[in-house]
TrEMBL record:
<dbReference type="Pfam" id="PF00583">
    <property type="entry name" value="Acetyltransf_1"/>
</dbReference>
<protein>
    <submittedName>
        <fullName>GNAT superfamily N-acetyltransferase</fullName>
    </submittedName>
</protein>
<keyword id="KW-0012">Acyltransferase</keyword>
<feature type="domain" description="N-acetyltransferase">
    <location>
        <begin position="5"/>
        <end position="153"/>
    </location>
</feature>
<keyword id="KW-0808">Transferase</keyword>
<dbReference type="InterPro" id="IPR016181">
    <property type="entry name" value="Acyl_CoA_acyltransferase"/>
</dbReference>
<dbReference type="InterPro" id="IPR051016">
    <property type="entry name" value="Diverse_Substrate_AcTransf"/>
</dbReference>
<dbReference type="InterPro" id="IPR000182">
    <property type="entry name" value="GNAT_dom"/>
</dbReference>
Length: 153
């Protein structure tokens, strides 16, 4: 990774730059234009990062004062462990830093946060078509073998 990229918790003054990355991330999953997330969802997501009662957190990657990546993660309980689990929900890096180790550094940042929180597991999902991301994920973790189902209601 470039020595000029740092991984750190998001701060309120990051909003404008975070929003640009957030919109690009959502667009990569088809949530743009008429299918874009409603503004109140984005604002609620942002506010949760700063609410001490919410188990949702964000890290950003910064290069020369510009944000070039984001990751969001959530701690939650489960029925199979006493310690909380950590769900790495969102991960996005700008094209300018693809292949420079920023994604891996951000995932490692989540691993570090999970260790500090005493969690027993970090897990995440990706789309089956996201082959480039899976090349990285295969180096960092094991596939669980689980298949996700969902029903939008």
């Amino acid at each position: 990774m470039s020595e000029n990229v740092s991984i750190r918790p998001v701060v309120r003054s990051d909003y404008d730059q975070w929003l640009v990355l957030w919109e690009h991330y959502n667009a990569s999953y088809g949530r743009a234009g008429e299918r874009a997330l409603a503004a109140d969802i984005t604002l609620m997501t942002w506010s949760r990062f700063f609410d001490a009662y919410e188990p949702m957190y964000a890290l950003v990657a910064e290069n020369h004062g510009r944000l070039v990546g984001l990751t969001h993660y959530i701690f939650h309980h489960s029925t199979t462990a006493i310690q909380p689990n950590c769900y790495l929900q969102d991960l996005f890096t700008s094209e300018a830093v693809h292949g420079r180790g920023v994604g891996q550094a951000m995932i490692n940042g989540v691993f570090d946060a999970a260790r500090r929180a005493g969690t027993s597991r970090v897990y995440w999902l990706t789309h089956e078509s996201n082959a480039s991301a899976m090349q990285l994920y295969d180096k960092l973790a094991e596939k669980s073998g689980l298949i996700m189902y969902q029903m939008v209601i």
